[in-house]
Amino acid sequence: MVTGLDLVAEQIAIAEGRPLRLAQRDVTPAGHAIECRINAEDWRDGFRPSPGTVTSAVFPAGPGTRVDTWVQAGSVVPPHYDSLLAKLIVSGPDRAGALARLRPALAACQITGVSTNLSLHTLLARQPEFLAGPVDTGYLTRLAGQHATTGQQAAGRAAAGRGPAAAGTARALPAAVGSTDPGAGGGPRPARPGQQAPSG
């Protein structure tokens, strides 16, 4: 979304034996993009997978907003594979602009039937430390720990040597996640799964 090039199409062309049609001088990034990976998991319970049947799925669309997904009402999320449901990607002229676009885009996402990490993305989007930019790789672990279920909080204390449970019961948390910013006016309109908005 920041190069204006379809890199997947180029990969397919190369796989078909065609020569590379781009040189590095043809790739000129412009602007800023942020991606949120929406997973079927309960992030308050150690990111426990949440297989099941999706009962509804609504995604945003609008300028600078893109959704890559396979999910729609009736989709079955199996327990055997990656729990990724969708990638929500927004872009703007700079980081602040992308963040401003991301928050209403997250608010427009609705997935029911399975637990998701949408609320974690939304929570992260409101954090002053994240919005300011300089967070370390342990930031998400600390943030998720503050909002974990009681059992997971106990496991976390045990892992840190502050509780009676075995340290091995604490689950590691992913080190990164997409994000967002204080509000921009006028959220994006809902779209059908798979619909892509103009990149703006």
Q: Secondary-structure blueprint of this entry?
A:
Layout: H1 7-15, E1 32-39, E2 41-42, E3 48-49, E4 52-53, E5 56-61, E6 65-69, E7 76-77, E8 84-92, H2 95-108, E9 110-112, H3 118-125, H4 128-132, H5 139-146, H6 150-159, E10 189-191
Antiparallel strand pairs: 1-8, 2-3, 4-7, 5-9, 5-10, 6-8
Helix pairs in contact: 2-3
Q: What is the structure about, briefly put?
A:
With 200 residues, this protein is of the alpha+beta class. It contains six helices and ten strands, in the order H-E-E-E-E-E-E-E-E-H-E-H-H-H-H-E.
What does this structure look like?
- The chain has 200 residues and is an alpha+beta fold.
- It folds into 2 domains: 1-29, no CATH class; 31-191, D-amino Acid Aminotransferase, Chain A, domain 1 (2-Layer Sandwich), CATH 3.30.470.
- The protein is 27% helix and 21% strand.
- It contains 6 helices and 10 strands; from the N terminus they run H-E-E-E-E-E-E-E-E-H-E-H-H-H-H-E.
- Strands 1-8-6 form a 3-stranded antiparallel sheet. The protein has a 3-stranded antiparallel sheet with strand order 9-5-10. A two-stranded antiparallel ribbon has the order 2-3.
- The protein is globular.
- The chain starts with 6 loop residues before the first helix and ends in a 9-residue tail after the last strand.
